[in-house]
Amino acid sequence: MSSEKKIRFGIIGAGHIGKRHAEMVRRNPEVELVAMCDIKSKESLGLTDLEEPFFNSVDAMLDSGIEFDVISVCTPNGLHAEHTLKALDRKKHVVIEKPMALNVADCEKIIFKALQVSKQIFCVMQNRYSPPSLWIKEVIESQVIGEIFMVQLNCYWNRDERYYNGKNWKGSSDLDGGTLFTQFSHFIDIMYWLFGDIININAKFSDFTHKKTTAFEDSGIVNFNFINGGLGCINYSTAVWDSNLESSITIIGEKGSVKIGGQYMNEVEYCHIENYTMPELPPVNPANDYGSYKGSAANHHYIIENVVNTLKGRTTVTTNALEGLKVVDIIERIYALRPASLLK
């Protein structure tokens, strides 16, 4: 693609995250937003001032004759595969919000189709761009911390009736898919990115406060081995009262220990490594604001930059389709251990 040509984006889904994509596209001088679509009306979505063409179906947007280079899929989790495959059918590159899909089979369909039409898949895992994530990636890859002994991932958030209000897809088995998919897949991605795949999974699950609002568990304790060596565990819950507590990762290594915490894994809380002085890190972007709730790090502009730089031949995809598939694979294998009694 010519370095002078603007990359044309269409966005499927105009909720909080779709609007976030639109904002980031408009801010980048090398791209332009050419259309959006959503099954809801512009008025109900608060988009009455939208200047770009707006459609009420994916097919209508893709059949409109508007030229697209990239389609951002920002719809409910359970629709990601369907909408991505439609965009690939039209030979468009695709940016997929997390998770890539709700099962490995759909991820494989996406990868196969993308290879057939020679188009790129960009999976949105923007927490990789946060300064603590980039720093700990270098610490691990350079073996400053030595052999990895243990990793603990803690994700304790609040999601109550203000979030699961029955007016949207959140909490459903077919469109949401579960707590690990919607709330915590970013952090499972970070764990996989840093330490690789897992085996020998054991898990316990419970539903403490969401029996009337979701079709699945709100809490779990998962332990496993990393294929590359070391023990790991994930402890998670959305039953925390009133507000988020933390998303943290604690790493015990041969030559030292590190804890990255804060509500969104955005603060280095502890670093004690042999013969190592921690550098001063750049400031962390504030969390995304999704109405009553805040989400993971607000790094979506890096995603759009990566799309531009990849399509113009300057770099490669930050989170490719195979990595997106692996996050879904890990969650699917964990969820295979859920008792049927927790699924409503």
Short description:
By secondary structure, this protein is α/β, with parallel strands linked by helices. It is 27% helix and 26% strand.
Q: What brief labels describe this structure?
A:
344 residues; alpha/beta; Rossmann fold; Dihydrodipicolinate Reductase, domain 2; 2 domains; seven-stranded mixed sheet; six-stranded parallel sheet; 26% strand
Mean pLDDT: 95
Count of separate structural domains: 2
- Low-confidence stretches are none
Percent of residues in helices: 25-40%
Strand content: 25-35%
Q: How far from one another are the termini?
A: 48 Å
Radius of gyration from the CA trace? Answer: 20 Å
CATH topology of the largest domain: Dihydrodipicolinate Reductase, domain 2
- Based on CA inertia axes, which overall geometry fits? globular
- Count the DSSP helices: 9
Q: What would you call the quaternary organization? A: single chain
In the CATH scheme, the class of the largest domain would be Alpha Beta
CATH superfamily of the largest domain: Dihydrodipicolinate Reductase, domain 2
The CATH architecture of the largest domain: 2-Layer Sandwich
Largest sheet: 7 strands, mixed
Order of helices and strands: EHEEHEHEHEHEHHEEEEEEEEHH
Please list the strands of the largest sheet in the order they lie side by side: 8-9-10-7-11-12-13
Structural class given helices, strands, pairing? alpha/beta
- Give the total of beta strands: 15
